[in-house]
Amino acid sequence: MNKPSPAIIAQSAVRRLPRMALLLFCAAYVLPGFFGRAPWKNEDIAAFGVMRELAGAFSGWLHPQLLGQPAGFDALMPYWLGALAIKVLPFLDPGLAVRLPYVLILVMTLVTTWYGVYYLARSPKAQPVAFAFGGEASPIDYARAIADAGLLALVASLGLAQLSHETTPALAQLGFLALLFYSMAASPYRSATRVFGPALGLATGMVGLALSGAPTLAVLLGLGGAFVEWFHTRWGINEEDSTRKQQSQQWTWLIIAVTVLSAVLAQVFDLWRWRIHIPGTPDPAGVREWGSVARLLVWFAWPAWPLALWTIYRWRRQLGSRHVALPLWFAGITTLATVVTGASDRTLLLALPPLAALAAFALPTLRRSVASLIDWFTLIFFTTCALTIWVVWLSMQTGIPRQPAANVARLAPGFEPSFSWLAFLIALGATLAWAWLVKWRAGRQRAAVWKSLVLPAGGATLCWLLLMTLWLPLLDYARSYAPLSRQVASMVDPASCVEIFGLDSAQTTALQYHGQLRLRQAGPRASCPFLIVDTESQNALATAVNLPDWAFLATVRRPTDKNENVLVFRRVSADAPPRPAPARP
User: What Rg, from alpha-carbon coordinates, does the chain have?
Assistant: First the structure.
């Protein structure tokens, strides 16, 4: 028996969002943050270092390393993409070249999320209630409007902005997961035997996800997708429609085959890792860890998660339908992985596309009072954030008001503000666009199902763009290793090599990229005139080098982090009395 749809929506409410406005909106979100900055700590610059070394190597592509140390993340595809970009674009700075494929990955994420929601919304059980005298939304227009809402919900998610603009395996996983999600959502409308289309997207998405360091996630999503497809074959298609049943069966077997292929490739490339960690274990007093995870879940996926919960409630009679079951499985598995793995925020990033899909299906069931509450909260929150960004920038430029500039000088000692007409004009244009958007939303416009998410997505884009224009010099100074690296480089001979001990991948890459130093791991026999040691590894230094060979030269501190210091030593003759290293801070 068909269960009634909770969506009651007229044709007048499913007009599509203007395409040019949508494209400009996406460009304003995607481009800022990828250009005009240095690699940031920690994962961003660490991954860049592995890509840079891989691009200059003729071997080791199956085991990415940095100065002989394994890459910090058990993945292959993300490093391959960056290294290939450096090789193909040798005329570009490596820091810029590696970002270009990741720009395309973020674009792919937005596009495939839109199409995934679009095909889910075309499902027969996702359609709104038919009116007695006509006038209900047509399936195509309804699907397009819901897809617009899904894209807005994704962009509005607070946790997407920073992590989606870094060249890390997390962004590669996000892109491949979104591609996999689209491929499974589009299966009823495309043949599984066609080489191009969703079938190719299925193979690329699942294999790419497995090779990006998430083979377990790929297998679980594949198994769940196969079950949803089988369930759709068994109960979602009329018995008389043999053609569609055969096509659905082909998709079920294709998903299973690609899942097995991904598992085999992960085994061949040794990508299976045990990363399960239950918060609070082994320490029973780890309630704080649970609290940290809970806070992350609340703000990271806002406002998608409350709308997704509302979708589950209102569509509870259709939980077995593919437009609810598929995104619910994707969101459930990725959220569970967030709880039981260490990299919580980067794992939760993968839940955003399916949560956005679920959030979109909440809009046809929302009351007008709830939509107004979302608008008012969004207006107050993002307008306050934008004003704060402008006030701090004005204070840095003019000294008025005094307190924000004093806070910046205290938190980022040595930072010198600079003025850019281009950044100023872009930020001003974005702010005026926000004011117009608020005026438009407050006006007496015709109802549109996606209107409730225009302000959240617009506000998130505005604040991200303001941060990446007005505050970019400050953020670049605070989040990069450039100041520390250049200070170290000024103390050593640039023509000679430098030994290192205890530095992590991010620090090592920074000294290579910003300081232009030739580094090698320290050993018992000194081979370079200088040695750089992380203060956290100072106590173990005697086990790695011959201390009488080295004299302490200086301590170099990262201006915006009091706990991140390195020690610089100069090589001396074995019989010369070295200066004692300073006490560990």
Answer: 27
Reported as a single tens digit per residue, the pLDDT across 518-576 is 999 988 888 899 999 999 888 888 888 888 889 999 999 999 988 889 999 999 855 44
Q: How far apart are the first and last CA of the chain?
A: 71
Residue 454: both structure tokens together: 């225009």
- 106 within 8 A of 197, measured Cβ to Cβ: no
Overall pTM surpassing 0.70 (yes/no): yes
> Tokens for 523?
């050993």
pLDDT digits (tens, 9 = 90+) for 193-206: 676 789 999 999 99
Residues in the chain: 585
**Strands 497-501 vs 518-521: parallel, antiparallel or unpaired:** parallel
Q: Is the peptide bond before 401 cis (omega within 30 degrees of 0)?
A: yes
HSE value, Cβ hemisphere, 13 Å, CA-based, for 312: 16
Encoding tokens for residue 249?
């069966």
Whole-angstrom Cα distance, residue 291 to residue 224? 29
Q: How far apart are alpha carbons 472 and 258 in whole angstroms?
A: 43
Token pair listed for 480: 């990069």
**What interhelical angle do 215-235 and 169-185 show, nearest 10?**
10
Under a CB-based contact definition with an 8 Å cutoff, are residues 346 and 160 in contact?
Answer: no
Cα(116)–Cα(467) distance, rounded to whole angstroms?
Answer: 30
Domain extents for the chain?
34-124+135-271+295-365, 368-479, 482-571
What CA–CA distance (Å, rounded) separates 513 from 312?
49
Under-70 pLDDT residues of the chain: 1-2, 58-59, 132-133, 192-193, 195, 236-241, 274-289, 342-343, 444-446, 573-585
Query: CA-to-CA distance for 322 and 457, rounded, in angstroms?
Result: 26
